[in-house]
Amino acid sequence: MFLTGGTGYLGRALATAMLQLTHTVRALVRPGSEGRLPSGCIPVVGNALDQRSYAAHVAPADTFLHLIGVSHPGPAKATQFRTIDLASAREAVQAALSAKVGHFVYVSVAHPAPVMKAYWEARVEAESLIEHARLNATILRPWYVLGPGHRWPLVLKPFYWIAERIPATRDGARRLGLVTLGQMTAALVAAVEHPAKGIRVVEVPEIRGGRALP
Prior knowledge:
β1 (2-4), α1 and β2 (26-29) form a beta-alpha-beta unit. The protein is of the alpha/beta class. The protein is globular. It is built from seven helices and nine strands. It starts with a strand and ends in a 5-residue tail after the last helix. The strands form two sheets. A seven-stranded parallel sheet has the order 3-2-1-4-5-6-9, with helices on both faces.
C-alpha cells in the first residue's frame, strides 16, 4: 500500500492498523518528517504537490490511498483547498496511473453541505478527476471525524438527534453525520482489503454503521 498523509491525524491511525494486519506500508513524507510515521512504515521522501518526486516509488503497491488535506479546515482556508487538497489529489491520480495501481482510495467529504462550500467543491472536483482517470476507486465521504483533539462537534450531537427524527431534515443530518476516528479507520481498512471494481462511494451512514462495503 502507498499512502499519502501518513503523518496526519487519520493517516497515522490507518498506517498503524494496516501494519498490525501485516500489510507493507510505504508513506510519502516531507524531508525531516520521517520520524513522525508509525514504526514499521517505509518512508518515501517527496512533495505531495509534485508527483514526479515520488511516482517512481509507488509500484509495486496494489493500493494508493490519498489522505492529503489542509488540517483543521475552515472558511479562511478556501484558497488552500485548491492549492493543497485539490492539487495534491491531481498529482496522486497521475502517480497512481503511472504506477498502474489496481485500486485508489480517496477521502472526500460529505456533500452538498450548507457550509464550507469551497472545501467540498474542491473535493468534488477531485472525485471527478478520479472518475475521468477510470481508476478502480473507493471514495469515502465523511463530514467530521471525531477523535483526540477533534471533539468540539460533540456539542452538536443533540441537534443531530433531533434533526434525524424530523422528516424534512433527516436525510441531510444522516449524510452530514459525525463519525469517529475508529469508524473511519475501520472503513479505510475494509476499503483496502476489499478493492472496488469501478467507482465505489461510501457515505456517512455506511462508515458510522460499520456495514460491509458494497
